[in-house]
Design a protein that fits this description.
The structure holds two protein chains of two kinds. Chain A is mainly α. Chain A has a single domain, classed as MetI-like fold, CATH 1.10.3720. Chain A has helices spanning 7-34, 56-63, 65-97, 103-115, 118-129, 135-142, 156-181, 185-193, 198-209, 211-226, 230-235, 248-258, 262-290, and strands spanning 37-38, 51-52. Chain A has a two-stranded antiparallel sheet. Chain A is globular, with a radius of gyration of 24 Å. In chain A, 33% of the residues are buried. Chain B folds into two domains: 53-174 and 329-368, 3-Layer(aba) Sandwich (D-Maltodextrin-Binding Protein, domain 2); 177-327 and 395-450, D-Maltodextrin-Binding Protein, domain 2 (3-Layer(aba) Sandwich), CATH 3.40.190.10. Chain B is built from 19 helices and ten strands. Classes of the chains: A mainly alpha, B alpha/beta.
Chain lengths: 291, 451
């Protein structure tokens, strides 16, 4: 009876729809429009009409070597997030769920980096990596070693990935731990009685029963990897060194607000959305096929 | 019935909450200042036909805000101005000249919320504002107020001519780009201060051998001064002041100096990843020997006894005369059409700009900057200058008429930023200086053609 009349529901949904329309869909359509114009200002200035340039920005997108670097880095980051964030989160969750004492301490310790702002973490690691007097080089100096430029082209991507991945392990750890708590202890007890080792229990009980949670985590990690921005931007702004650590998010920001190339920034933003939709669709398809 | 009423109330509350942020007038509880500003502005509009002497609210925006060293002088002048003009209330919204500030000014102009008086850039960065035709020319103001900007030197006024060739702004102080040297380090290693390319390379090699960073610069952040100096010296003053359609060989050679210097080990090991503040600290803490920067940088140098400034020494096969510098004025005070067309505000706006740009005001700005900046009026001081300030004065005096404003004051901002962002690649040889310059010049030319 409560849902016989549908129109009251519409009233409740309307604010949300309006919100999405004003702050998401209209700007997105505006963004698509901007990508076809040469914009010299972020806002429309009287007396200065943007010039229509057709698909020039899209042509540039396919020839821009920095876009290639950004896409490759984002794809590498996707793989790394699945392996290190979801993988490590799972391993830590299994380990913590098996200990009798101190589980709460581990939960806090592993989750702690998630609550620290990415900007603060970025700054912290920037200080660790500093060539002149950074923490790592001070340690090397105490052993009488020469300082290392930790952010040189050969090392920079790995050094940026380390804190980016580390800071989110705790997030997946907590999700996995919640998933683990839903598995009945009876199953593990039965396995124990049957002589199944702890190691085998993980493969034959935990993993199959955690499948939906793991799939959710993988989807979150893959789409999240496309949005990586704040931590790399603080540590190595403008994709330093030499644009080698650009991700799609940092390159879009750099193009839009660093170079003031608003139209090209819009084009990159559209590419990120398209990639995000494609990635999530592919992941969903893969998960469904397995089911 | 009660349920329906509750549902309707909740839905209304949710919609109202959502739409609250869309109102054109800020809520009084959250932004009382904005509300009072609007009320005051309305009051000003009501008195549009009122004679001079009635209450006027003047909205001003400047780049002398926050941590800017000029902020205190600017505020003191405002306080004095209000004392002398009790009918005028100045509502100032100043901020440091960063991207946020620039975007905010542009946004205000685009929606018709421009201030009455604006202190802003006058070079290519003001092109968008100039295009709106909302800034009044000095010629138009002088037709009614012949004494407007009477203290300002004509050369200074010419220096802040907008990109369309019209003079609108009145400047206060300008800048020169000089090479700061830690003289104590030069003395320690028995080196002369660099005066040409050969002495510069000798200094670089000697410092490098002795574990001192020869040149403090962040190629990833602010290589601007080196771009300017290398092109100026390689191409010569005339070519530097032009904006060619394609890159002349001398401009290309100038940018290729980055690779030569990098190969010599002139820059910090981590020059590709650090920022300008960091390399500034390297210089100030004597870990680096030289730094090329604007005269505004001198204020932050603590050791003013052992730090001296020299003109950029030069590059290989240079065309510029020794002692030539990048120098000029890049900002000034504008009066907007909004204030000019309002009879109640016109007089107040003119008086305000004259107060901020008078000889007395410029002297105060000059003193606050440590007597090192270029001045738009005649200035003098009885104070004894520090060796650093004196060396900057000597560089300016020696340059005489051999100076020019930077390329980024003539070139489209996006085009120049593309050059800046390519410097790391040019210095490693992974990008061609010629291609980078040609792309930037073509973009700049296309923007000018579109205007």
């Amino acid at each position: 009876m409560l849902y016989k009349k549908k129109w009251p529901l519409l009233i409740f949904v309307l604010p949300g729809i309006l919100f999405m329309l004003i702050f998401l869909y209209i700007p997105f359509i505006e963004n698509i429009k901007n990508s076809f114009y040469d914009m010299t200002s972020i806002v429309s200035m009287p007396g200065l009409e943007p010039k229509y340039i057709g698909i020039d920005n899209y042509k540039t997108l396919f020839t821009d070597p920095k876009v290639k670097i950004a896409i490759l880095n984002s794809l590498k980051m996707m793989v790394l997030t699945v392996v290190f964030e979801v993988g490590l989160g799972f391993i830590l969750a299994v380990l913590v769920s098996n200990i009798k004492r101190g589980a709460q301490i581990f939960r806090t310790v592993y989750f702690f980096p998630v609550v620290i702002s990415a900007t603060a973490l970025g700054l912290l690691f920037k200080l660790f990596y500093n060539y002149n007097g950074g923490m790592l080089n001070q340690l090397l100096a105490s052993f009488g070693k020469e300082p290392v430029n930790w952010l040189k082209p050969e090392l920079a991507f790995i050094m940026v990935c380390i804190p980016t991945l580390w800071s989110y392990v705790g997030f997946y750890f907590v999700i996995m731990l919640t998933g683990l708590s839903d598995i009945s202890d009876d199953i593990y007890e039965a396995a124990d009685i049957d002589g199944c080792s702890k190691f085998k229990q993980v493969f034959y009980i935990t993993l199959p029963m955690m499948k939906t949670v793991i799939c959710t985590c993988i989807t979150l990690a893959l789409t999240g990897a496309l949005k990586v921005f704040d931590l790399p931007w603080v540590m190595v702004p403008k994709g330093a060194p030499q644009g080698l650590t650009h991700f799609l998010g940092t390159y879009m920001y750099q193009s839009t607000f660093g170079v003031n190339n608003f139209d090209y920034g819009s084009t990159i933003a559209i590419m990120i959305v398209v990639l995000g939709v494609v990635v999530s669709k592919v992941v969903n398809l893969m998960i469904k096929e397995r089911d | 019935m009660k349920k329906k009423l509750l549902s309707a109330l909740l839905a209304t509350a949710m919609t109202a909450t959502l739409l609250a942020g869309c109102g054109s007038k800020p809520a009084e509880t959250t932004a009382p200042d904005a509300a009072s500003t609007e009320a005051a502005t309305e009051a000003g509009e009501d008195t549009a036909a009122a004679p001079t002497g009635e209450a006027v609210t003047l909205k001003t925006v400047s780049m002398f805000g926050g941590t800017d060293p000029n902020a205190s002088v600017y505020e003191e002048i405002i306080a004095k101005f209000q004392e002398e003009n009790p009918n005028v209330t100045v509502e100032d919204s100043s901020a440091v000249a960063d991207n946020e500030c620039k975007a905010s000014v542009v946004a205000d102009f685009s929606v018709g919320n421009e201030p009455d008086v604006l202190q802003f850039f006058t070079d290519a960065q003001a092109t968008n504002l100039v295009a709106t035709d909302k800034l009044v020319s000095i010629e138009e103001i002088r037709a009614e107020y012949p004494d407007y900007a009477k203290d300002t030197l004509e050369t200074a006024l010419a220096g802040v001519t907008n990109t369309d060739g019209v003079q609108r702004a009145v400047p206060t102080t300008g800048f020169s780009e000089v090479l700061y040297c830690n003289k104590d380090l030069f003395d320690q290693y028995g080196l002369e201060l660099p005066t040409d390319w050969d002495s510069l390379t000798t200094a670089v090699t000697t410092f490098k051998e002795n574990g001192i960073i020869p040149i403090a610069v962040s190629l990833n952040n602010i290589p601007h001064y080196w771009i300017e100096a290398c092109i100026l010296y390689s191409a010569g003053l005339d070519s530097y002041q032009s904006l060619p359609e394609t890159a002349p060989a001398e401009w290309v050679a100038g940018l290729e100096t980055f690779k030569t210097l990098r190969d010599m080990g002139a820059f910090p090991e981590d020059t590709d990843t650090v920022d300008n503040d960091y390399v500034g600290e390297l210089f100030k803490s004597k870990q680096a020997a030289m730094q090329l920067d604007g005269t505004w940088y001198a204020g932050g140098i603590e050791d003013k006894e052992n730090t001296v400034a020299v003109a950029f020494p030069g590059v290989a096969n240079q065309k510029a005369e020794a002692g030539t510098i990048t120098s000029g004025f890049s900002s000034g005070f504008y009066i907007t059409r909004k204030a000019w067309d309002d009879p109640a505000k016109r007089d107040a706006a003119v008086k305000f700009v004259m107060a901020q740009t008078s000889k007395e005001a410029v002297s105060a700005y000059w003193a606050k900057g440590g007597f090192v900046n270029k001045c738009a009026t005649e200035v003098s001081t009885t104070e004894t200058l520090t060796p650093l300030a004196q060396s900057i004065a000597d560089v300016n005096a020696a340059a005489g008429n051999n100076f020019a404003g930077p390329i980024d004051s003539r070139m489209d901002a996006e085009a120049f930023t593309n050059i800046v962002n390519s410097i790391c690649d040019i210095s490693t040889g992974s990008a061609s200086a010629e291609d980078v310059l040609n792309d930037a010049l073509a973009l700049s030319a296309s923007r000018v053609a579109a205007e």
